[in-house]
Design brief:
elongated; single chain; two-stranded parallel ribbon; mainly alpha
């Protein structure tokens, strides 16, 4: 019949570029606190079109965010990945800061927001948004590996140098131990840790192997399943001056 039945004045809100919660926002957030994260995701996505959260929808977000403490960690982890992998990761970080939610939603997300302005993580977020925009697949393991690389790199360096008068460790065991520490302190027991953690570990463990460019080593590295992700990771490191541009160009 070519009639739009609009029970909640959605068309009117769309024309006013307003994003509004259906019903009472405080009640809705209490019913399911994950709606807080979804409100952030939708507002970040639509911000590029000029939409803004309606004040009554935005006002209870900070106070209601304490309710997220009762949400299973695995669900929060999945919602965090949605925030970062829908093509609006940079806008999402900006929206979290704007709404006063830069911390407190999920510990690993706090790290993302804290490091979003560092050259390496900023490049990773922009690269993820670009790939989504081009219809290319993105892997959460790559972005999280970028976010936590500073912890791995610093822990690795400390173990190579040695601590408390002890001699430094060999390169690969030192890197493995540093990675284990990062998983224990930053990742914890979350859904998908098996494959996601394995992919992150491979990306990190391949980094010192890029320094070896003689003999059969390069050929065996190229044959690894996660080579492309590890190379893209190393390419970003070169872009921010962490490794030689010549190494990236050689590979």
């Amino acid at each position: 019949s070519q009639i739009v039945v609009d029970y909640h004045n959605g068309i009117k809100d769309a024309k006013k570029l307003t994003l509004r919660m259906i019903g009472d926002p405080i009640t809705r957030y209490r019913e399911d606190p994950v709606r807080i994260i979804r409100a952030i995701r939708f507002s970040a996505k639509l911000a590029q079109l000029g939409f803004k959260l309606e004040p009554k929808t935005a006002a209870p977000l900070v106070e209601s965010s304490r309710l997220l403490a009762d949400v299973p960690q695995s669900r929060l982890f999945d919602e965090m990945l949605k925030l970062l992998q829908t093509g609006h990761a940079v806008a999402t970080v900006a929206q979290l800061r704007k709404l006063g939610l830069a911390t407190g939603i999920y510990p690993l997300l706090d790290v993302v927001v804290e490091r979003a302005d560092t050259p390496f993580v900023q490049a990773a977020l922009q690269d993820t948004d670009r790939r989504v925009g081009e219809g290319k697949p993105v892997a959460p393991s790559f972005l999280l590996a970028c976010v936590l690389w500073a912890d791995v790199r610093d822990g690795w360096a400390q173990r190579l140098e040695g601590r408390n008068g002890q001699r430094g460790q060999p390169a690969f065991p030192a890197l493995q131990d540093a990675i284990d520490d990062v998983f224990n302190t930053r990742i914890g027991d979350v859904s998908g840790r098996g494959k996601l953690g394995g992919d992150m570990r491979e990306i990190w463990m391949m980094q010192p192997r890029f320094d070896k460019r003689v003999g059969s080593t390069p050929y065996s590295l190229v044959e690894q399943a996660r080579f492309r992700a590890a190379f893209d990771f190393m390419r970003l490191r070169a872009d921010v001056g962490e490794v030689s541009e010549a190494i990236a160009e050689w590979w």
